[in-house]
Write a structure and sequence with these properties.
The protein is α+β, with helices and mostly antiparallel strands and 179 residues long. It is built from 6 helices and 10 strands, in the order H-H-E-H-E-E-E-E-E-H-H-E-E-H-E-E.
Length: 179
């Protein structure tokens, strides 16, 4: 959890349900390719991933460019196409999903299945990857990252793409405080 010098911001982060009581906010955040890749470039060191960047495209899909050291076979580079799934609604359907539609080669799917336990042990809690799908359990990931107090505010999350940017559509809803 970040620390803030501004007491109002610190209070909002400490108790978002109380600070934002009665809020009904729908927002679309355009995340540009440059911003996304800057965030990805700041990933922690010591992982087998040597290259990782996103290329959002029109038609609600994006490509992930990935190079990593793989057991036995050495360096592997792929350009994988992902298609975002349906909107996430809380608490009914908390999984943000991305179908892997292109970019895996003949032996990639069996290799992913073979090393799945190793891959899962290095992922943050709430992220699940298999040979055809990437799933993110949004509340578990937020909790893992230290933002558990924001989970009750999430009502709906939907990710789409257009050329050069991802569009993050959020609906935040905080119940009014009872007096």
């Amino acid at each position: 959890m970040p620390t803030f010098s501004n007491s109002a911001v610190a209070a909002a982060f400490a108790d978002p349900g109380g600070s934002f009581a009665g809020t009904d906010l729908r927002i679309t955040l355009p995340l540009t390719r440059a911003l996304l890749n800057e965030v990805l470039a700041a990933r922690p060191g010591g992982t087998p991933v040597s290259e990782l960047y996103l290329d959002p495209e029109a038609g609600n899909k994006f490509r992930v460019h990935l190079a990593a050291a793989a057991p036995i076979i050495g360096r592997v580079a792929r350009r994988i196409t992902l298609v975002p799934g349906p909107a996430v609604s809380f608490p009914e359907q908390p999984w943000l999903q991305f179908a892997i539609t292109d970019g895996l080669k003949f032996l990639d799917r069996p290799l992913i299945n073979l090393v799945q336990t190793l891959v899962e042990s290095r992922l943050p809690r709430g992220v699940d990857i298999n040979s055809s799908l990437i799933r993110i359990h949004v509340p578990a990931l937020l909790t893992h990252l230290g933002y558990q107090q924001f989970v009750p505010l999430l009502h709906r999350v939907h990710l789409t793409s257009e050329a050069n940017r991802l569009l993050l559509n959020l609906h935040l809803l905080a119940q009014p405080q009872q007096v």
